[in-house]
Amino acid sequence: MARPKKARNFDEELMKVEAQITRHKNTILELEETRKQIVREKQQAELSAVYQTISDSGMSIDQVISLIRQQSDREESRAS
Q1: What is the pTM of this model?
Q2: Positive or negative, the Cα torsion across 66, 71, 41, 22?
Q3: pLDDT of residue 38 exceeding 80
């Protein structure tokens, strides 16, 4: 003889699912914040490396900016 099915408690099931959704949303928010922090730290490390390279070269920031702009202008002229 088959056992009778246990009555489902829909409200309890919904509460469990909603709790899981909330927990996962919070995890996603935490992970997104961690990603933002890592990106900021990476950018800072890259800027530091660029600054150190410029400093080691003996050039000023203005000289490097001027060189980059000249290079960019030349490339734009060739593309036209």
Answers
A1: 0.69
A2: positive
A3: yes
